[in-house]
Amino acid sequence: MDIHRLEVLRELAERGTVTAVAQALALTPSAVSQQLKILEREAGLPLTERSGRGLALTPAGRVLAERAIDVAVALQRVESSWAEYRDSPRGEVSISTFPTGGMMLLPGLLTRLADTPGLRLVVTDQDPNQPDFAALTASYDVVLADSGGVTASWRERQLETVELMREPLDVALPEAHPLAARASLSPDDVISEPWIGVPVDFPFDRILTSLESLTGHPADVVQRIGDNGIVEELVAAGHGLAILPRYTTRDHGNGLVTRPLRGMRSERVIWALMRPDTAVRPSVRLVVDALRAEAAAFVAARS
């Protein structure tokens, strides 16, 4: 089977439509369909089937798409080994980040790698309320993600995951609130307060769920907002308490303060996500190593 046609099948498995595959591979949709037909003849089994107005993978197609990842990883390892022999890490590495992750890590990362010959970093920020950061790995070499742990979607896509840092999540409250006089807060202290929450099932929402479980009382969520900046303003104006990240919340002087939660784990994990074949590129490994070093330095400076 032709490796380029295997790549087309893999892209269909990840992107979902012939049109999306065509755009990603700079082909026409008819060329993509033709490559899939040829691959099906080579494989000797039906690989796709009609699903509405598009194509879906058959069970055989899904198995072969998974094996196509193995092929891509093997080829990338060969290319990377040769590149390491021939050159130092170089070329373009694209990075996708959510806003607060970028605030913490990107300035130092760009400084660390500024003098690396032949290496160019291209950074973009994404909506922090991504339903699934994993989908971004189809378009970016390194994706910074915010999650409490490795998700099922990351495992299904066989992504390489590197934990970069852990950021405590604190309770934000108006600086004139009676609880602001305390150095830390317990679940019982705060559960009866009105809350500015995040969309259901997003990472910070699990902290409110834990508060409910520990206290046996429901949280009174009066608003659900995805943008941390808006949440800060609502808290400062006295409309409720919120769960916000410690390092990137504007504490003091803007009408709100933050206090740690005691008696429960309250943190988020910042990850680097990559396709497995992308992860073995020397330039990508260099960037991820620099991200880990920057994350460690960032946390140490605030400990």
Count of beta strands = 11
Q: Please estimate the helix content.
A: 40-55%
From the spread of the alpha carbons, the general shape counts as: globular
Mean pLDDT: 90
Radius of gyration: 23 Å
Number of helices in the DSSP assignment: 11
Q: What does the main sheet amount to? A: 7 strands, mixed
Low-confidence stretches: none
- Summarize the helix and strand pattern as letters: HHHEEHEHEEHEHEHEHEEEHH
Please give the alpha-carbon distance between the first and last residues. 54 Å
Specify the structural class: alpha/beta
Strand content: 15-25%
Please tell me about this protein's structure.
- The protein is α/β, with parallel strands linked by helices.
- The chain is 44% helix and 22% strand.
- The strands form 3 sheets. Strands 3, 4, 5, 6, 9, 10 and 11 form a 7-stranded mixed beta sheet that branches. A two-stranded antiparallel sheet has the order 1-2.
- The longest helix is centred in the first third of the chain and has 28 residues, at 59-86.
- The protein is globular, with a radius of gyration of 23 Å.
- The mean pLDDT is 90.
